[in-house]
């Protein structure tokens, strides 16, 4: 139970209550200044704490501070930040695997393009490659929707539903009788699977402190960065020896394993855990006054409106978001251009077998692993900058040198 929260006066009201020091001593002046500054410091601390906890829409209605549900203490084992290190590693590994499967499916498709053209009697190669385009559009569109949903219901339910429907929608692709079926179903499958890409970074932040967050993200990124590389490799051997339809069944098996993984994980989102804790407390005690600061009194439609509009507002109003959106779009555009062009160049023009042509992507995978392995070195370069006197940490601008 947290300490009661009091409503502090504004700095202006504190100043007026203390009076202006016309003939007072220096001590009186210092006391007045302290009273003037204290509420502002308290308010700043409260805002900082709220932002760190990730509050999106606050509790409305009458609340009794004595009945607020919070973590028992700083070492509360129910807090995901206090989980054992081994379980944090397992959680990151399971999430990385699931993300790897979703991204792998985006490129394993490319190895079967010639066979699909033959089976579906399609003569236009650009038309068949639209399967990659529709999948990427589904990933982008689904991320905008499913990322905010996890802030309402928690990460785990979204992961479970996402991987289940992703796995289910692979079946129509494997049994498709026309190219149109493949294009449409791949789009909706990507929408379902996009939750892993959109919410996985949030889960990593949920369980890892600032000190180890960069390392944790590096470990998690092994999956999403190498998924596109393994797609053509696995798809190439599968297509040559089993047929292009089996590229779907292989991914379905991998996604079934991923679904088991995410079902075995605990909830990582602290607001969802505190909301559930308040519900349990109300049920056990019969006292309806137990509440959490994350209890939502707003309608689902209003919450969805707020959470869906936030990414667009940040994208078009924050310069740093605009920069990274453009930068990542260019990088991934070039990357996926390679995934479509390599099979054409190495299989059709150079006569490589379908299985061997996928190995042309190993260079990209090795490069991604080298970048991940260099994370400690990059972190040392960042920490070499003079620390900020106020925080004692390197300033945010220190990371610019690494990006450049």
From TrEMBL:
PROSITE patterns per UniProt: MFS, SUGAR_TRANSPORT_1
Name of a matching Pfam family: MFS_1
InterPro entries given in the database record: MFS, MFS_dom, MFS_trans_sf, Sugar_transporter_CS
Membrane topology qualifier: Multi-pass membrane protein
UniProt keywords, alphabetically: Membrane, Transmembrane, Transmembrane helix
Main subcellular location: membrane
Record domain Major facilitator superfamily (MFS) profile: where: 91-404
Subcellular location: Membrane
Record field: compositional bias (Polar residues): 1-30, 43-61
Biased composition (Acidic residues): 65-75
Gene Ontology biological process: export across plasma membrane; xenobiotic transport
Cytoplasm keyword on record: no
Region (Disordered): 1-75
The protein, known as: MFS multidrug transporter
Origin species: Lasallia pustulata
